[in-house]
Amino acid sequence: MIDPDLLAAATWTTEPAAVRRTDEGLEVSAVRGSDAWRVTSYGFVHDDAHGLLAPFGARDAVEVRFRLDYDQQFDQAGVLLRASPQTWVKAGVEVSDGVPQVGAVVTAGRSDWSVAPVPDWHGREVTVRASREGDAVTVRARVDDEPFRLVRVAPVDPDLELRAGPYCCAPTRDGLVVTVTGWRRTAPDAALH
C-alpha cells in the first residue's frame, strides 16, 4: 500500500514519461537516459532520476516496495534520499551485466557504487528500507517476506534536510515501467544488527 499522506506531500525530482495509478500502486514509466550519478570513474553528471520524494526527518525510516520485473542493462528502482544535486543516496536493485544487483550509491559531491548479485530476486517483490538515526542512514532490503539483509550504512549530516521516496531510472533504453506497490514511513531501526 502507498501511504496517501506521503503521496500528497511528494514531488518529482524529474517527471517520468508517465505515471498511472492502479490497484497495485503506481506504474512509473521512465525516460530513456534517466539516471543519478556524479563524476566518479565516468566523468559525467546525471541528475534526472525519477524520484517521488516527501520530507524525511532526522529520526525517520521509509520503505519502498516494487516488483522486480525488469531485466535490461542499468534498469533500476528503489528508494532515493536527496538533499541536493550533490548530496543524495539511492538504494535498490539495478541490473548490471544481465544480473539483478542489490546495492547503493552514496553521493557527497562524487558518487560511489556498491552491489551484490541477487539473481533469485527476479520476478519477485522487493522492499528497500532506509532508516535515518543520528549521523547515519542504514539501508536494508529483502525479497517477498524473507528477512531484511544489510545493504549499506552511510554517513549523513544529522542537520541535513532530506526528502525520500521511490525512484526509478532507465539509463540505456525506452520502455522501462516500474510498479511501486508500497511506500510507507515507519520508526527508525532500533539497532544496526
Automatic annotation (TrEMBL):
Family annotation (InterPro entries): ConA-like_dom_sf, DUF1349
Top-level taxonomic group: Bacteria
UniProt-listed Pfam families: DUF1349 (PF07081)
Identification of the protein by name: DUF1349 domain-containing protein
